[in-house]
Amino acid sequence: MKTYFYLVMFALLPMLFACSDDDKDDVYKTYSLNVELTYPDGVSAIADVPVVLTDAKAITYDGKTNADGIASFTVPAGLYQATVSDRRTGDDFSVTMYNGNKSDISVGDTGDDITYVGRVSLVESKTSQLVIKELYTGGISYTNESDGKPKTYHFDKYVILYNNSAENLSLDNIALAMILPYNSGGTNKDYVDDKLLYDGEGWTPAGTGIWYFQEGTTIEAGKQMVIALNNATDHTPTYPTSVNLAKAEYYCTYDIEVYPNTTYYPAPSENIPTSHYLKAYHYGTGNAWPLSSVSPAFFLFSPKGQTLAEFVADASNMDYYGGSNSQKRKKVKNEWILDALEVFEKDNAKNLKRFTAVSDAGAVEITKASGYTAYRNVDAEMTKAIAGNEDKLVLGYADDPSGIDAEASIKNGAVIIYQDTNNSTADFHERKQASIKE
Amino acid sequence: MRKFILIILLVCFLVLHAFAQHYSLTGKIVDSEKQTPIEFATLILSEQQLWATADVNGLFTIKNVPTGKVVISVSCLGYMKTDFELDIHSDLNNIVFALKENNLSLGEVVVTAREKTEAVTSSYTIDRTALDHIQTQSLSDITSLLPGGKTNTAVHLAINSPQEIELRSNTSSELDNNRFGTAIEVDGVRISSNSVRAFNETSSISSRLAYGTDVRSISSTNIESIEVVTGVPSVEHGDLTNGMVKVKTKEGKTPLNVEFASKPHTKQYALNKGFALGRDGGVMNLSLERTSSVSDLASPYTSYDRNGITLRYNNTFNKTSSRPIKITAGVSGNIGGYDSKADPDAYSNTYLEEKANRLRMDFGLNWLLNKSWITNVELTTSAALSDNEEIKNEYESFSSSSVSIHGMEEGYYMAEQLEDNPDALIGLIPRGHWYEKKITDDKPRDYSVKLKANWSRRFDKIVSNFLFGGEFSYTNNTGKGIYYDTPTDEKYTYYVPTWREYKYSDQPGMKSTALFVEEKIDIPIKASKLQIVAGLRTDITSISRSAYGTVSSFSPRFNAKYTFWDRQEGLLKKLTIRAGWGKSVKLPSIAVLNPTPSYSDRLAFASTSMSDGTAYYGYHIYPVSLLYNPDLKWQSSNLTEIGVEARLGMARISVTAFYNKTKNPYKQTSSYSPYTYNLTDQTSLNNVPIPSEDRLFTIDKTTGIVTVSDKSGVFPAQQLDYKTRLLYKATYSSANASDVSRKGLEWIVDFDKIPALNTSFRWDGSYYYYKGVDETLTEYSPSTQLTTDGNFYKYVGYYIGGNSSWNGQLTKQLNSNLTITTHIPKVRLIVSMRIEASLYNCSRYLSEYSGGNRSFVLENRDSYVPGATDGDIYAGDQPIGTYPLYYSTIQDPSTKILFREAFLNAKENDPALFNELARLVSKTSYNYSFNKNTLSPYVTANISVTKELGKIASLSFEARNFTNTTARVKYSQNESVISLYGSGSIPKFYYGLSLRIKL
């Protein structure tokens, strides 16, 4: 009898060891982790800043900060990396990003009921909220089938505006403008003693007319707006190397009350709703807005303290290029300029700058009539800082100094932030195909 | 005034009647070297208006020569014209006149313009030797030989605009169209540009309503001599305001002449010969010329060609009788023009071709009646036909529908697809690629018949010549105007773009009748002589079916010349004074009277584009044509001239001063009237349920309301919303600008040849002064500009002389030339160097108004109001503003409001009105705009050499601007300094070589 009791005890012995506290119960234990953001001097924390925590197995946890800049997580033990990008939009159409990441945040190794803290120092970088993403004015060359001689066509111009920020942007009181003289090669009568006469006077000339948006037009956060600048139809049946501008989400500069010239502004495609037509104020001579197809100086501006209508009606801000009464332009204050792009004609030794350094210190060279566009470079630092982007970015695009192929990345689901250092030499590259062309 | 002159002439006619004795002269004309007879030489007694022609043996007879001293001018082609003076008291037989052959072995050769001293008014003769020496390729080259003249800067003829001649004027920015007023005549046939329309089509309402005669199509190698009249011409000539160029082609027996000229851009080949047709068959002159000029040596496909053929016949019948009759008949043709077709670098099938085909025919009869009541009767008839067809083939493409508008009636019209209605008033050209072939069919025709008679009388020593006659001319254009051709071609598709039919042949021509009388009296007073010419011309012009109807004008002309003495010895051998005054009227061109109507097409509707590129457009068509101006006066010029000619020691000096006032120069003016039209845009389509491919758009012709209906019939038709817009419409009319005045001084000093050096010097020059200020009230409005409230601009400004900062100009120029000619007869060589200097060249813009200040100094460059103190606008380097005198609003267009006070008041009290009226203010382009612009002096030189090789050949070489000067000149207006090289003020370095062979 005693022998059976000892046998049973021996048999149950392993069971005692089998149940242990250090088993699975330990893996499911979670800890509190506070990720604290440290902003640069003078910058205060704000709520709802996304913080992404990534563990060793690439599992991500998303959190948002509170008003003190602290994001709270409840996570299992392990080593984590916290990535923060605080993208803020300023009143002056600027986007300031506070980025930072901290790796090797260890959780769960020093105790169970304490709150672990990871501090992330944030570094500031700035860009513009509203940027010119792409400008296509060069047109294309095509060969006429009947005689095989190349000809050029440039009524398929367009510009793409982009919202670099995380908030929707209203386009009220914002205008598209260009500098007169229209081209950069050749004599520029604004140069006096090797300096632009308006450099130092704080204004930039907007030649002949401006386009503005109908009330209530907005660009959504992180989205683009394609604006056809002459002919918003599908050009590809007549000119196969051109683009198709007849899409419902596109906009067009079309105002037959101001510019009834049907060669420059034929009827837009029926796909485009009439609310997408930009309107114009015209104060110069001529019946069209002659944006150069070789070397335009294009910019966006928004007057402060007055509406666009008041700005155009005011006779005191009128200037005449070369003093000629037929070359009218308006003086736009430099602080009103939201974004500027200077295009130079490729291989022309006489290109002269028209923007002053404060708006655009450089220029991008584009070959005309080849279907090439001026495309903005990606701000690699800010783009990679956005949580989740790194995996979706498509690299290997040699024309962009960052190497990031923006269009392919966007198709892949990434969010792109474009660089804007007010210098087109650094901010733009020549793209060998229009981005809207499939 | 006119009646007074007529009475004087009539009294002279009736009172003076004398009896005089008459004798006959017979003799022979021979070559001075060979003593062989010169056949068909001409003898003229210009004072007595008698003439005769020698026969094949050189024998001549002149009958009814009055007693006393006569001057007989003997000439023949190829020989030097010589004057022989005879004292007639009885019949003279067996007179022998010897003529010297015209070549470089002669003692005296003139290679510049020779003054026509026997004429009473200032005129110059340029003969063949001079034309060969400067290697004339076009008639416009001769103006360089006139006093103060400059070498033509045009290097070739292959330009796309006419080449015109201007006399006594120097710039093209003058108010009156001086080149239109210069008359060109070839062998008595006037080459007029009154009916030419091709060049007027290039700009729809051009500020230049007419062009002068295009001289490029006139052959230059068969010209024998050219007479240029810069003074008051005889009343025989009308329809001019700025002098005459009379070209005489070769007439007479000549050996076969072969010519070849080569210059960098131009090649010239010519052949001419004068055939004697038997004993009494007369002479036939034939000349053939080919001149080909290219614009770009590297790509010689843009060219101007001149292929001319001239055939002239002349014969004198009844040579030995007292009543010979001379018959001349001529046919002259030219085929050529401007062409850029062959250029392989241009796009295939795109080219511009402008023909300049000409045909001139003339027939003349000159009968020496030699009766006591009439001396000579002359009849000339001529016809000049031109074909200026211009063909322009251009390539077009577009990615959506484009419109082609043809409607000519006022109203609203909707575009239709060309495949549905090929005759649509507004057609839709489908998207794609196509060609447009534009043909301008311009065929001006000029016909004229002129009959004149003169009666020469001698009363003791006084010779009186009474001339009277009439001329009838008719000019019209039988061309179809501009039209488009759509040839069927498998390779290329053709469409007709926006175009309206306007046939020139449907427009009436201009008939002109002229009557003229002239009395010329030569009164010798001891050793002096007084010549007086007084004449009156009346021009009656009528244009049927034109509001201008019949217009008549009178042109009195008066010239007098007093020769103090003319002898062979003494220091002051000859002294002559002459003076003239005359009026001449320039008839308007057909373009002024019947301008091509233009149309204002305003977009009234635009649909959206469908996926196949089709879009529908509606337009409001408003025909605009030059309105009839009942106050339009014919442009005329009053010329006053005074001249002195002297032979002082070794020099021949001639100085002429002139004052020319052009009255009522033609110009174009606009006026504005308000009108409304309805605009329907795409927003009105937002409520239309009909799918786009089923939509059918129609527009009401009068109201402009667009209705869209459903082709499939499912949805009801709908009227679309529209917006009514009020704006000004500009209409144009011909008008007269203010008078323009010119003054000048011309001088020529010819030094005799220095025998030791074989060299002669000629110093000539001209001082020219022009002032033209237009004070006529002109309307202007930037009417198609919009204000920020979306409305069209509501105001019209009324300006003195136009809305530019200046309404006139002052020009002063002093040019001088020195020609050094070395002529060595033994070697038959002539070398001349011509130094052309521009000594003073000053111009200045003027802003003047007799009723006050037209322009003023602005506060600062950006301001629109005057500065505190009344500055002088000519002080220099300041911003100048110009206000209109009045303005009116679109709501009340007939009320003129004084601008200045209203504007300055609005500045303080009504900023919105101030901003709008500011658009009517003109500001100078630069602070230096009103500065005096003086060009610093500069010099250029040409060198020409002609060498005869025996009697058979002659070689000429010319280098223009042979130093290829790169000197710099300064413009005082803005202190800019430019190099003369390539500046356009001087001719480019250029050389030419020509060879003439006589067989």
Beta-strand fraction estimate of chain B: over 45%
Could you tell me the CATH topology label of the domain at 2-99 in chain B. Answer: Immunoglobulin-like
CATH structural architecture of the domain at 2-99 in chain B: Sandwich
Overall morphology of chain B: globular
Strand fraction band of chain A? 35-45%
Task: Output mean pLDDT of chain A.
Answer: 87
Number of helices of chain B: 5
Q: What is the subunit arrangement here?
A: heterodimer
**Major β-sheet of chain B, in short?**
22 strands, antiparallel, barrel
Please list the strands of the largest sheet of chain A in the order they lie side by side. Answer: 27-26-23-14-18-22-21-20-12-9-28-29
Using only C-alpha atoms, the radius of gyration of chain A works out to: 29 Å
Most extensive interface between two protein chains, with residue counts: A-B, 54 and 60 residues
**Per the principal axes of the C-alpha atoms, what is the gross shape of chain A?**
elongated
Could you name the ranges of chain A where pLDDT drops below 50 across 5 or more consecutive residues?
A: none
Distance between the termini of chain B: 58 Å
Number of strands of chain A: 29
Q: How many extended strands of chain B? A: 60
How many angstroms separate the termini of chain A? Answer: 89 Å
Task: Describe, in plain words, how this protein is organized in 3D.
The complex is a heterodimer of chains A (438) and B (999). With 438 residues, chain A is mainly beta. Chain A folds into 2 domains: 100 residues, Immunoglobulins (Immunoglobulin-like, Sandwich), CATH 2.60.40.10; 262 residues, no CATH class. In chain A, 10% of the residues lie in helices and 36% in strands. In chain A, the strands form 7 sheets. A 12-stranded mixed β-sheet of chain A has the order 27-26-23-14-18-22-21-20-12-9-28-29. The longest helix of chain A has 17 residues. Chain A is elongated and about 120 Å long. Chain B has a domain of 98 residues: Immunoglobulins (Immunoglobulin-like). In chain B, α4 packs across α5. By secondary structure, chain B is mainly beta. Helix content of chain B is 4%, strand content 51%. About 1% of the residues of chain B have low confidence. Chain B has a 22-stranded antiparallel barrel. In chain B, strands 8-9-12-13-10-11 form a 6-stranded mixed β-sheet. Chain B starts with a helix and ends with a strand. In chain B, a hairpin with a 7-residue loop joins β41 and β42. At the A-B interface, β22, α2 and β24 of A face β22, β35, α5 and β54 of B.
